[in-house]
Amino acid sequence: MPFEQTAPLIFGIYPGSATGDAPGLLPGPADLPDEIKVALDKLQPEGVPFIVRCYQHYVGKGITSAETPANMTQYLQKGRQLELVLCYRTPDGDLADWAEYVRGVVRRYGPHLAKLQITEEPNNPDPVNGGDGSSPNVLPAIIEGVLAARDEALRLGFPIKLGFNATPSIPGNPFWSNLGALVKDNDAFLQALDYLGFDFFPDVFRPLPMGKDGKQINLEDAVYFVLKGFRETSQEVGNIPDTIPIHITENGWPTNRERSPERQAETLERIVRTVYQHRQELNLTHYEYFDLRDTHSASTDTFQFGLLRDDYSPKPAFEVYRRLITELGSGG
After folding, report:
1. Is 288 helix (H, G, I), strand (E, B) or coil?
2. What would you measure as the largest C-alpha separation in the chain, in angstroms?
3. Cα–Cα nearest to 83, from 120, 105, 121, 54
């Protein structure tokens, strides 16, 4: 169904470099907070909402193993809002401890939080590449985490938006059907859920799909196809109503020796404009880019998603994103 989604998109970004603490993360220069603040000031138009996306890794027994970027609240100047992602990486699956951990995060960060995401890519079983799907009890952790966060936020009077996210579905992955069975008739969870996040990276980890004519489909069609598929699968299989908006929580296109900065800028613009074009049909309200800065720009054999190089000099995509935020994030 079409939605009365005439408002501009709300934009955001992850402002650090590498995330997490998994083995094999590419090393690079340390984050420079003053340079990050300068870049965020340039991206955010005056008086326009802007999301700073950050991550914590819960590893059980109330312990956080990584927080990226460090001292995250320092970036919330000029009215910027915090979205905190609670990655669920526990080996024991203790849901009572997890719920108490979530409550503690609400107590600690509640005054700063606009959004709290419960788990990270729970349908992705690869922890090295960002997924929580192999952690025990990850499906009930979504539900228990959202309910605990809502209860604590209401108790303390914090107007926090709560959600979880996922990646595009892989054939044979039972995530949505299993979640749908838990969610069905769970009115408390559905009433507590404010958004459904979506991490997707078209034309990055796999080539663009082929059309019925045997030719590779164009980028705009591929973006629409995956967005529409995500909405339909989450609704029809996962029992998440389409009245719950989708937030694009991670999207990016990298540079390396085979991918030019100029093409990155062009691709970013095409993706964002496609999201904006279909925001009413699919109930899309947020777009957050991953990420602000390359982890290690000198590396030639891996992906570098940054709008900036690791010395904080801009690629062409930085100016493109700044312009899109000004145009599409302020009612243009």
Report:
1. strand
2. 57
3. 54
- State how far the Cα of 313 lies from the Cα of 297, in Å rounded to an integer: 11
Question: CA 91, CA 280: separation in Å to the nearest integer?
Answer: 40
* Nearest CA among 50, 159, 138 for reference residue 87: 138
Per-residue pLDDT of the chain (332 residues; tens, 9 = 90+): 455 556 789 999 999 987 655 554 567 889 999 999 999 999 999 999 999 999 999 999 999 998 999 999 999 999 999 999 999 999 999 999 999 999 999 999 999 999 999 999 999 999 888 899 999 999 999 999 999 999 999 999 999 999 999 999 888 899 999 999 999 999 999 999 999 999 999 999 887 877 778 777 899 999 999 999 999 999 999 999 999 999 999 999 999 988 999 999 999 999 999 999 999 999 999 999 999 999 999 887 678 999 999 999 999 999 999 999 999 997 54
Q: 85, 87, 145: which is closest to 115 by C-alpha?
A: 85
Show the domain range for 171.
Answer: 10-328
In three-state secondary structure terms, 70 is coil
Inside any domain, residue 3? no
Count how many domains the chain has: 1
Length of the chain: 332
Structure tokens given for 68: 């990226």
Look up residue 163 and give its two tokens: 């959600």
CATH code of the domain in which 138 resides: 3.20.20.80
Half-sphere exposure of 284 (CA within 13 A, CB side): 25
Q: Could you tell me if residue 77 is inside a domain?
A: yes
In a domain, 4, yes or no: no
Residue 151 lies in a domain: yes
